[in-house]
Amino acid sequence: MSNTVAVGAFIPESASDLNHLRDQEGKKSSNLSKKVILILFRFLIFAIVFVFSFFNIKNTSGIFDLRIIVLSTAYAGSIVAMFFLSSRWFEGNRLLSIFFISDTVFIVAGIYLAGIAETELFLIFFMTVFISALSQDVRSVFSVAIVSCSVYAFLHFKNTGEFWSTDTAYLVSFPFLFVASAMSGYMAVETKRNKEEREALVTMNHFMSAKVEASTSKLFETNQKLKALLEYHNCVLASLKSGVVVVGKEGTVLTFNLGARRILGLPETETAPRRLEKLPDNLKPVVFALERTLEEETGFVQDNLELKTIRSEIIPVSLETSVLRNSANEIIGAIAAFRDMTLLKQMEGQLLRSERLSALGQIAAGVAHEIKNPLNSVLGFSKRLSENMSDPKMKKYADVIVEEVHRIDTIVNDVLEYSRPDQVQKTRMDIHQLLDQTVDFLREKIELAGVVVERVYADALPLCLIDPAKIRQVLLNLMLNAIQAMKEGGRLTLKTQLVDGLVPESAAAQTEGDVFQQLFLHQQMLSVSVGDTGAGITGENLGKLFHPFFTTKVTGTGLGLSICHKIVVAHGGSLSVDSELGKGSRFTVDLPIESKDRK
Amino acid sequence: MPDEPLTILIAEDEKASVFLYTEVLIEAGYRTVTAENGYQALGMLEDEPVALLVTDIKMPDMDAFELIPRVREQFPHLPIIVVSAFKNKEEEINAMNLNISGFFTKPVDMDELKKKIAEILAPVAG
Predict the structure, then answer these.
(1) 3-class secondary-structure state, position A231
(2) Do B55 and B83 contact (CB within 8 A), yes or no?
(3) A438, A468, A493, A553: which could form a disulfide with A531 (CB 3.0–4.6 Å)?
(4) pTM of the full structure
(5) What is the ipTM score, two decimals?
(6) Any idea where the domains of chain B sit in the sequence?
(7) pLDDT in tens, B92-115
(8) In angstroms, what separates the C-alpha of A580 from chain B's closest C-alpha?
(9) CATH 3.40.50.2300 fits B7-121, yes or no
(10) Which pLDDT tens digit goes with each residue over A302-338?
(11) For residue B107, what is the nearest residue in chain A, using CA coordinates?
């Protein structure tokens, strides 16, 4: 019993399940055998008592004594009834005791009715005592012994007329019966304990195997979790746009993520080198930073670092290092994380430029006002002079003043235009219509220069979201430049087509909060090119083409292309030029078809 | 030309420009009165009948943005021509919905101005 309790203490959560298992397997067989043993035993007693009754008849009625027949039939009936009793019934000691005592009563009744001498059947009591050990309980064995002794004494009294006797056999019978019952009771309890121990072992076994199974599945689960964690960890590292390099204390490379490769333009599939020294030369500043971090045992930030990509491009990066510590707070390595700051620098530049422009715009507006007021009267009066001069020479002088005033006016207007904040008011517009309008506007100049206009328009172009006035200004400027480049005549080629291009998501409009998280979207763009067959542009001039105030013309302000560039950029597009000396130039305006402005 | 010349009020703080407009418009047969700012212009309009107002935008004390709405309160049908150094002021003026008859950017082409005034005043003179 103590074992079972001990086992029970081991398995608090699964004890009931295991007990149930044990009940199903163990008890069934033992109860069945108990039932069978009991039935066999009773049948044996029945047979013995009946046979003895038959052969030792002292009564006149003998075997045909009605009482014997009734008793035998009842007993036999009870044996048959036992067959139909569930095995479960034989487990309870109370029922077993009833069986044992009723057996004793039957024996005694049989002996008494048959008139057999009590000593002759005394051994049968031993049998009942032994069989009562089936109950596996000392108490029920002893009670059977006591009942047996009592009825034996009663039989003796019936036969001899007195309880006491000097007959040794009779006197010895009592202690024998008790010793036998004590022995069988002890054996029974012992057997029961053995059985319980065995059952406990079985239970233990079940428990152990269940435990092993549970821990195996837990191990599997943990393994799965670990795998998922590792994958997650790898995904995080691979998805980071920042470069991450982690090294161990001895200089082993633990992590060299995809971001780092992408920033440097290294092949993405190559496996990371094992040693810090083996990292590519492009990463030298990062390696130095890692070594310094390990040496000084403290991380640092380096903002204006430059890395050279595999294509020898210099890219600005912001680097941050920190020491890698384990859970015991011991330094086990160093981490370097660096970000490509190209876009940020570009945007900083743009911001600086727009700040400068806005300052310039304010000054320009003030200056323009102050210049235009005197120009108003200068132009008015010089025109009046020109109209009223009779001397052609004087008239000519006045005309020069008028022309020069116009020139000043143009310069002031260009500066005003260039320094004005980028504001576009977009509507859906057919670009071909806009091109044709511009050609019509320049008709006179085109014919005068002997230029042929060639239109290479793409079919079924979608409407474009643009500021028509501004884009017209761009086209006018580009066409004027083209015509001026073909003084001896030539061909003006206007070409439209759809192209794939990258558009900054936050084109023109400032995005809320994430100004620097500018994303470039891949999208279809409308490409409009204006080509000429003029002299072309020298390589030296090509680079300065969009610089404000750069000009190759005697009369130009040098702001035309700068303004065009500004307008196109404000549309989220780009303006580019390719030119070949002696063959001509082509200016291309790429405009996004859909505006991504968030307003 | 009618016997009684029509009066044009010129609101402009630039003396040289006032001189130019006066010269040209008198030569064209109009009578001119001038004001240096919005307040003076309002006073002039109350003093005598004016056929047309030519006003600069930027003037001391009261500019055209303030002057024109005040003029419109009393003279809803007075033709007004606005002159400015800045082209983009035209949009601002138009946005105010003040029923402006014309807009000129400095330097003003005086022939154009004369033509415009003649157009506006033709029915009146008629």
Answers:
(1) helix
(2) yes
(3) A493
(4) 0.45
(5) 0.85
(6) 7-121
(7) 888 788 889 999 999 999 999 999
(8) 38
(9) yes
(10) 888 888 888 888 888 999 999 999 889 899 999 999 9
(11) A376
